[in-house]
Design a protein that fits this description.
The structure holds 2 protein chains of 2 kinds. Chain A is an all-alpha fold. Chain A is 51% helix and 0% strand. Chain A has helices at 2-14, 29-36, 50-59, 71-84, 98-114, 118-124, 129-139, 150-159, 176-187, 192-195, 199-208, 214-217, 219-222, 228-234, 244-255. Chain A is elongated, with a radius of gyration of 27 Å. Chain A starts with a helix and ends in a 27-residue tail after the last helix. By secondary structure, chain B is an all-alpha fold. Chain B has 2 domains: 3-87, Orthogonal Bundle (Rna Polymerase Sigma Factor, Chain: A); 98-191, Winged helix-like DNA-binding domain superfamily/Winged helix DNA-binding domain (Arc Repressor Mutant, subunit A). Helix content of chain B is 71%, strand content 0%. In chain B, α3 (44-58) packs across α4 (66-87) and α7 packs across α9 (159-191). The longest helix of chain B is centred in the C-terminal third of the chain and has 33 residues, at 159-191. Chain B is globular and about 55 Å long. The N and C termini of chain B lie far apart (52 Å). The chains are: A mainly alpha, B mainly alpha.
Chain lengths: 282, 192
């Protein structure tokens, strides 16, 4: 009897001081669903779930700029893919998009006030790094390069007309392959991770069937080359003309997608394996 | 939500308009990255990049509205994750350290006040500390903004199962947070 009282007393101490029944965390279906749908403010949640509701609210907080840091690379990859598909090659501007870029114009005005180089400088990638980064973040969708992408952009501009600032690396399956491979090899073990972010190396990774496949893809170029560092430093893609004619041939032997590399292709729902893409020759 | 303009934006992206693609990216990358941070924190950014590449490749074959597009992007991401897991055969689970929640040691209302400042990262780490199947459905619902039917389709489970898993996850989360506070409460009683 007294043992039981002691046990009850102990259990009362262990139980949260909420005074609820045996299952104080019981939650009705409706409340649970509202919590999971983000429709219940933490202040309105049952007391036992207030902290959990706060965690859920924090997890669903508005996006931050650092979460969009990969936008340039994602858009560059998109452009590379779009160019490899003939009917997507000519971008068609939709009037409805103007409202989405209008805030960018406001941002551009602010940047122009900060720099005599103004937006023109931003668009060609000549602003100082911090300003370029802001311009890139604000205008990223309009094709303004990030501060880390000067090299790729200027290399691109050298040999192509400057009418198009769309962020894309050179065609890594064509003439640029050798230069890209040497530059990539020169950076291995050093700033490799950062270099892989550049559009040029994105193109290389794309051609190699993934970043993991670059070493294999470049094996025939980089093997036997002693002066990696020097060549890498001066390597400039010799041509940025999309080698559409060569692509068909190169895909056959050069890229070897999904063959030796462990980069599985096309298993996702949206998987579009390279071999199902329209032949660039047509 | 992009809303009424979604169809036009999707059509433009299908025709190679990179600004339209950027609109889609800005809308979905944050929730996508957060979902991946819950289910595969060590590789979430790589998986997000791979996902967008797949989306770019498959874009012109996608048919549907904004909700369908959202579901598709998360489905692609999940398949990338499953592929990775398969490749890595056995990846050791990453346990969430108990101090991932900085305000645990506080007690009572003070903790509630401090909790309002909990970072998104810490919140995602806490959700990621739940049993994996619970963590995934909670993340898809909370950060993905997806309903039960959408989540069920993405994780290839029945809606009833998704509901049960997410409710268990919610409960587990509440237990976790409660436990931390009560532990310190008892400690406080001893020192008095």
């Amino acid at each position: 009897m007294s043992d039981k009282d002691a046990l009850d007393d102990e259990m009362r101490h262990m139980r949260p001081p909420s005074g609820f029944g045996p299952d104080h965390l019981a939650l009705d279906e409706g409340t649970a669903e509202r919590l999971l749908a983000g429709q219940l403010h933490p202040a309105d949640a049952p007391p036992e779930y207030r902290r959990a509701a706060m965690v859920l609210a924090a997890a669903a907080a508005p996006p931050t700029l650092d979460e969009l840091a990969g936008e340039y690379q994602a858009v560059a990859a998109f452009t590379a893919v779009a160019r490899s598909i003939p009917h997507r090659a000519a971008p068609r501007r939709q009037p409805v998009l103007t409202r989405f870029v209008s805030f960018k114009l406001a941002a551009a005005a602010a940047i122009a006030a900060l720099s005599v180089a103004g937006v023109a400088g931003a668009a060609t990638g000549t602003l100082p790094d911090p300003a370029q980064r802001v311009a890139h973040q604000m205008l990223g969708g309009a094709g303004v390069p990030g501060p880390d992408d000067h090299a790729a952009q200027t290399a691109d501009d050298k040999s192509s007309t400057k009418s198009d600032h769309s962020p894309t690396g050179p065609d890594a399956t064509g003439h640029a392959k050798a230069g890209l491979c040497r530059a990539w090899a020169a950076g291995q073990g050093g700033e490799n991770g950062k270099k892989l972010d550049a559009a040029a190396f994105q193109a290389l990774a794309e051609a190699a069937g993934g970043a993991d496949g670059i070493a294999d893809y470049c094996a025939d170029v980089t093997s036997g080359s002693e002066a990696h560092g020097q060549e890498g430093a001066t390597a400039t893609p010799s041509s940025t003309v999309p080698a559409a004619r060569e692509q068909g041939a190169d895909n056959g032997q050069g890229s070897g997608q999904g063959e030796g590399s462990d980069h599985g292709q096309g298993t996702g729902a949206g998987g579009a394996p390279a071999d199902t893409r329209p032949d660039p020759k047509h | 939500m992009i809303g009424a303009d979604f169809d036009a934006i999707l059509a433009a992206a299908k025709h190679g308009d990179e600004r339209a693609f950027a609109v889609l990216y800005r809308e979905l990358q944050p929730p996508l990255l957060r979902y991946l941070r819950v289910i595969a924190p060590a590789v979430c950014e790589d998986l997000a990049s791979e996902t967008w590449l797949e989306v770019a490749r498959g874009l012109d074959r996608f048919e549907g509205g904004e909700a369908g597009f959202r579901s598709w992007v998360f489905t692609v991401a999940r398949h990338r994750m499953v592929d990775l897991r398969r490749r890595e055969a056995r990846q050791p689970a990453i346990p969430v350290p108990p101090d991932a929640f900085p305000e645990r040691s506080d007690a009572g209302d003070a903790a509630d006040a401090a909790l309002t400042a909990i970072s998104t990262r810490a919140a995602l780490a806490l959700i990621g500390g739940l049993p994996p199947d619970q963590a995934e459905v909670v993340a898809l619902r909370i950060v993905g903004g997806l309903d039960v039917a959408q989540v069920a389709a993405i994780v290839a489970k029945r809606p009833g199962t998704v509901r049960v898993l997410s409710h268990r996850g919610l409960r587990r989360l509440a237990e976790l947070l409660e436990g931390g506070v009560h532990a310190s409460g008892r400690g406080g009683a001893v020192t008095q």
